[in-house]
Design goal:
This protein has helices at 6-10, 28-61, 71-114, 119-135, 138-153, 158-161, 171-176, 178-182, 216-220, 267-274, 280-291, 307-318, 393-405, 409-413, 415-422; strands spanning 17-19, 200-208, 230-236, 242-248, 300-305, 325-329, 342-348, 371-375, 426-436. With 438 residues, the chain is α/β, with parallel strands linked by helices. It has a 9-stranded mixed sheet, sandwiched between helices. A hairpin with a 5-residue loop joins strand 3 and strand 4. The chain is elongated.
Amino acid sequence: MRRITSAEASTNAGELEIDHGGAIAVDTEQLREVGARLRTVASRFAEAREAVGRAQALLSSSAQADPQVDLGALRRSGERVGMLGAEIENAGTGTLLMADAFEVVELRAQAEALALTDAAAANEAQARADEMVEADTRLGTMADWLVAGWKRQRFDGLGDQYDPDGPLPSVFVAGALVGVASGLGKVRPGMVLSGVTDPVRVTPVKTTTPNAPTGLAAAFRRVPGATAQVAVEKYTMVGGAPRYVAYIAGTRNSLPWQAGESEPWDMKSNVELYQGGPSASYQATLDALTAAGVEPGDRVDVVAHSQGGMIAARLAMESEFEVSVMMTAGSPTEPSLTDDQTLLQLRHTDDVVSALAAGGSAEGTGSPDSFTASRVGDPHGGIQDLKLQTHGLETYVATAEMVDASDDPRAEAVDEYWEELGEAVEVERIEFHAERAG
């Protein structure tokens, strides 16, 4: 099947953008390699300009110069070669300067991320950034510009969707942007859940034997609905080794006056998780994994929507399971994953719930294969905004379809993951219903 471009897949919805997330969208070392190559090419143009100059001088001084040789044209050619060389030299110098600016952003972000777990390493990263800025003051200005641009873009569409004249008042926007000021939208290393939570009961309600999903949209369609909040799929691979994929639903009851009742996926759990505390929904997910036969150290990848994204972040960062791949849609937080963990995020810039993540962090997170796919989920204001349609799972499934159809190399690389799951000799899916025991 032919892959189509993101623009072709966008139709009337917001155009899809895929990047690593944060203000650092490139590999600084690769950028330096490009800059160095440009300067090498520029040096070749300089050599060519000198050769033309020598030829011109030789012909001009020769008594036997060929009258058919246009010395003026030769001179102009030399000048053009020189101008091209200068332009390439400037491009190379600018590229190297931009690489240094990206490194300053990265070092500052590393210092902030390490502050809770390794003060010495944090100070070292900050000192290196300060040293680079002191050596070239332009870098500080450029780094600030990069971060400022990222901060502006992470909420594109939110103001238009929820303007004062629209169906939702601006207080919704103010509430969503609390993540920016509080810093709670980014789960950093060293931030572990603490406190006690409500007891829960977890019951298996359905067992099936599906095939492996074949794409991102198919995976998000497996996030449970109806009575179940968690589904665990066991993949028995060739040779008998098991691996698992957990599918975690979003908030089921958002009515504040019913928070803390039987439904664990409610606003009480939302607040607890967002503020760094354990929740009944998180405990229920752990219990469901145990009931499905998952043992500490087993590989458990996660596909999650909304509140499920906060649960997934904690599973990936502090559980006893090995989470190698995490896929979220509209999560209110962003985890800090290691270089061997891959994070695939779907975000709508006009989604007030996703906006609680405050754009995550300037440095991005996860392995080099990690990416964030974002767009304006609903560019048209209307009554649907009252239902937060742009946050709905079905809207994110449409975005996942656009990722599946994209010819972006990072999106295409995800196909290998589905192919791996497709090699399983057996797949068993168990759906679980949870409720507060009290």
